[in-house]
From TrEMBL:
EC number per UniProt: 3.6.4.13
Originating species: Cirrhinus mrigala
Lineage of origin: Eukaryota, Metazoa, Chordata, Craniata, Vertebrata
GO molecular function: ATP binding; hydrolase activity; RNA helicase activity
Record-given protein name: RNA helicase
Gene3D superfamilies linked: 3.30.60.220, P-loop containing nucleotide triphosphate hydrolases
Motif (Q motif): 184-212
Length: 248
């Protein structure tokens, strides 16, 4: 681009037409040529600015990196290198620590297996009326393991009008033959001591309306179809009977 511009500057004094026509000499590209070097400078400056902004973008991308999710299955975990912790269940790299036992595990699968192995005798403890009396008499354990739901005395003494009033106030609607009366508290189910304590530790002080009606029906072993709003406690209403039947 610079060579044609310099040639025109050398030929300017030799031509008489440019001297006779001053208007054309003013119209020559000398003005534009003189300004062109200054115009070419800003691109160099902009390039430098872009180069300076690149490390800033790299720095902002580093904190956005998300941590890898916890591995669900042991097959997704690698084998350990010398000196690294080993999974207590499968021998792979013990990347995580079981929060219940403080032992090394490689995945959620091995954690569940480890907890299940350490809690094999949990069923016997749950069905003992008092955890301290398990070793004293085995006959008491056998009677607790034969759990069957029986309507609490307080619920049995309620009149039909009182039961219907409770259902109406709580918007409980039932259909079927010989439907169990709703409970008022979890104590009316006569759960084992350990299960009652766990319910309290989990924050379940009183049952929700769906739990009041579904839990006794599920404990009797009957099929039930229930509808309720999200967050009303349907899952716990199903799980409590399932836990009791599974532990038996």
């Amino acid at each position: 681009m610079f060579m044609p511009r310099s040639l025109k500057i050398k030929r300017a004094p030799e031509s008489h037409q440019q001297q006779q026509n001053p208007k054309r000499s003013k119209a020559t590209p000398e003005d534009t040529v003189s300004t062109s070097p200054s115009d070419t400078c800003p691109p160099d400056e902009t390039v430098n600015l872009e180069k300076e902004e690149e490390p800033i973008q790299i720095e902002t991308e580093e904190p956005e990196e998300e941590e890898e999710p916890v591995k669900s299955f042991k097959k997704n975990q690698r084998w350990p290198e010398p000196g690294e912790p080993v999974c207590i269940m499968c021998g792979r790299y013990g990347e995580y620590i079981c929060d219940k036992t403080d032992n090394d595990v490689c995945s959620l699968e091995c954690k569940a297996s480890h907890l299940a192995k350490t809690c094999l005798d949990f069923g016997e403890k749950v069905f003992s009326k008092d955890l301290q009396e398990v070793s004293e008499s085995s006959s008491s354990v056998d009677t607790e393991q034969s759990y069957s739901y029986k309507e609490d005395v307080f619920i049995s003494e309620l009149t039909e009008e009182q039961v219907q009033r409770v259902k109406t106030e709580l918007a409980i609607v039932t259909a079927g033959t010989e439907v169990c009366r709703p409970i008022i508290e979890f104590e009316h189910c006569n759960f084992p001591t350990a299960l009652r304590l766990n319910l309290k530790k989990a924050g379940y002080e009183a049952p929700t309306p769906i739990q009041m009606q579904m839990v006794p029906v599920g404990l009797t072993g009957r099929d039930v179809i229930a509808t309720a709003d999200t967050g009303s406690g349907k899952t716990v209403a199903f799980l409590l009977p399932v836990v009791m039947h599974a532990l038996q």
